Amino acid sequence: MNTYRTFLKLLLRNYIIGSLVSVFGVGTVLMFTTISLNRADVPYLLFVVFVSFLIMLACEFISFERHIRPVRLALTKASPSLEELEKAYIQTHKFPKLTGIRILGPHLLGLSIPAIAITHFLIAKQYLEIPYEYIFYGATAAVLIASIHAMLEYFQTSSSIIPVLEELRNKGKRLHYYELSLEGQVLVSIRTKFQLSALLIGALPLMLFSLATFVRFSEHSDFFIAQYWLWAAIILSLGIALSLYGAWLLFSTVMSPIQHLRTNMKKVESGNFTIKASDIYSDEFSNLINGFNHMVRGLNDRQKLNEQLLESFFATLAAALDARDHYTAGHSLRVAHYSIEIGRKSGLTEEELLLLKKTALLHDIGKIGIPDHVLLKDGKLTEEEFRIIQQHPVLGEEILKQVQPSEMMEPFLPGVRSHHERVDGKGYPDQLRGTEIPLLGRIIAVADAFDAMTSDRPYRKGMSPHKALAILKSGRGTQWESEFVDHIADWLEEHHYSINKEEYIKNTIKTG
To answer: 0.85 exceeded by the pTM?
Structure first.
């Protein structure tokens, strides 16, 4: 309520100041200093101004009431809806423009139309002894003065709406946990502001001066008037052209750094935190560019820290799992290593390889939920115990779904859930077939099987890489994807694996 009352007071103050400067200042002074009046005409002209002003106020109040209604509702209502707040927020942003429209609409027409009608009546009844053409001069001057008034009100209102916008944003966050924003919507372009401002500031005073000069000299020199409008047209054309050209230059000067920042901001939005805006400006935009670059550097540092924390998180989870069973210690790291080598030979991008590595590190995280008497059993598992073990891909998916923000974990879920599926559809937990199995799951399945076969267990010694590879090849196209079996075989051959070089795997992990 206090914000709304303060807003009304500011609007009233701005209106009074603008009216005094334009209507009663420029208009009245122009009228009484330009036109030669009889003393008897002055009371009638003051009457015309007074009556027209009252009519103008009535017309403008009706228009103002319609414009202010959504803002008043949102500010004075205890719990406005989100829709009401959004409507008020947009209406408040439009208020400077609406104020200018009121000045050039109800304000101008409500003043000039009654004034023209009453003045015409008074001249016809011979209460006023002025020529009829003065009505035209007065109407023309009213348009010029109203334009100046609209410009003053526009810029004054632009400052007055700031506390209202802040109050509406606070209400949106407090009542609906929503931050109001125009989302980049442009209601009035800078180009339009500059062009109209330059036109009003540069050209309207020239027009008023030309009109006043014409009226003044028309009473004394017919010869001068015959040449006046040619001269006035040239001067006015030059003034307007210079005003518009100056506005265009000013607009270009401002838009160049804005466009430069906008281009770089789009790069930041796409995740590029290494860009740097060129600091080539010597005005206040230099501070803005410097602040932007400082912000991007901070985002880049934060991104690196987040990546380090995420890497540490994956490594910690893998280490926590491996710590439960010293016989499988390092299993997740080795599976990640083999998966990356298969992925490289499959032509995955660096981004895809990073996703594959993190998924492989987490592929067995669901075993945390498997009871020790099943997970750590030395002998062969019973059917019931094997069914329990088969739940670990699902448990792993459920564990990762609990990590917040959930969208950070979402890319890893398919690979974790599907790394025990078989291409012939006889795997678990979903019996997927062929390419129904997510790509990362098919890769990890090969890497996981190879490491499981070559690792020692309490009840058996690990196989040689040669024998494990033979088993993988025998399962090509049934248990494992043929392409990925071939890729790990090629990789093993390139690194000269043999029956007597089982230790190479562990050494590779330690150094790699």
So the answer is: no
